[in-house]
Amino acid sequence: MSDSLLQSHRDAIDAIDVEILTLLNRRAEHARKIGELKGGGLVYRPEREAQVMARVKALNPGPLSDESVAKLFREIMSACLSLERPLTIAYLGPEGTFSQAAAVKHFGHAAVTLPCASIDEAFRVVEARSADYVVAPVENSTEGAVGRTLDLMVGSPLSVCGEVVLRIHHHLLRNGADMAGIRRVYSHAQSLAQCHEWLNRHLPAEVERVSVASNAEAARLASLDPQCAAIAGDAAAERFGLVKLAENIEDEPNNTTRFLVLGYHKSAASGRDKTSLVMSAQNKPGAVHTLLSPLAEFGVSMTKFESRPSRTGLWEYVFFVDIEGHCDEATVNRVIDALRAKAAFVKVLGAYPVAVL
């Protein structure tokens, strides 16, 4: 390629960059005006963001991938939202956890992420209005439901207003160059389970596996002792300056965790939504079948069904159900009314856009 042709492409990029900068600031100005029209009220609208993301992906002609375009627009919307006041997002800390990665994926880097010592504390700071939203793990594709999040949602005044689906990659990290001399591996219990077969194949049987509160805490501990390693993700490796001895060591190649976003406001219908419910059946034969019959009657699909001890009585259970559609839609609303007529207890946990990124 000649120097003159190369320069012509660089000049074209420089000119386009000026256009992009101008358009970005024009978009930000409109976002600021919307905030002023709302009188400083709620600016974050999950249904609107979901619609924007779906639209730009549908309009994307390439060569950038849909995922790349969606990530760019997430950061643009995040920066525009922060013009008035950055959102504060509580998550299970410390820094470097997958929960923090999920918070950043959903809200962008302009949001302030607030690490908490437990999922309980993350809920409490939002309930006390010391943070705007909590991002909490609710289920993993290989290890199943996160029971503590489900239990907290039953009694919390917060509503589910969004979901995040995060592909989970685990790495073996160490403050050293190779795997020789490792005597202990730290990680969260679920991560140890998700990498169980890899550990069996690649580390001696005498290497101790120690469960800790989070993968980020595992990385911190490994950074302090050269005889220890950790299973954690990219953010924890970077945060604690650890070497990746092996990458993507999860046993299940499609290992994915689903997170829910909860806050004090409800999301309006976006056009592609889920509604999450928790309910309990009456204590009699066939009660669960009877309880779920309105879904078939009204033709509403169920995407999740999970039982948990009710914590109110021995051998009594509550059922967590996700259904397609928004609770404000007529058909879904009729289903919920029918469920209330049959169930001992029904609570709408929230309705929210299906994750697009």
Summarize the structure.
GO terms for molecular function: prephenate dehydratase activity. The chain is α/β, with parallel strands linked by helices and 357 residues long.
Task: Give the count of helical stretches.
Answer: 12
Low-confidence runs of at least 5 consecutive residues: none
Largest sheet entry: 6 strands, mixed
The average pLDDT score comes to 91
Shape: globular
Using only CA atoms, what is the Rg? 23 Å
**CATH architecture group name of the largest domain:** 3-Layer(aba) Sandwich
Indicate the proportion of strand residues: 25-35%
- The name of the CATH topology of the largest domain is D-Maltodextrin-Binding Protein, domain 2
What is the H/E order?
A: HHHEHEHEEHEEEHHEHEHEEEHEEHE
Structure in words:
The chain is α/β, with parallel strands linked by helices. It has 4 domains: 3-81, Up-down Bundle (Chorismate Mutase Domain, subunit A); 88-168 and 256-263, Periplasmic binding protein-like II (D-Maltodextrin-Binding Protein, domain 2, 3-Layer(aba) Sandwich), CATH 3.40.190.10; 171-246, 3-Layer(aba) Sandwich (D-Maltodextrin-Binding Protein, domain 2); 273-353, Alpha-Beta Plaits, CATH 3.30.70. It has 12 helices and 15 strands. It has helices at 3-37, 46-59, 66-81, 98-107, 119-127, 147-155, 189-194, 196-202, 215-224, 234-240, 287-298, 330-342, and strands spanning 88-92, 112-116, 133-140, 144-145, 159-167, 171-174, 184-187, 208-211, 228-232, 243-246, 256-263, 273-280, 302-309, 317-324, 345-353. Strands 1, 2, 3, 4, 5 and 11 form a 6-stranded mixed sheet that branches. The protein is globular.
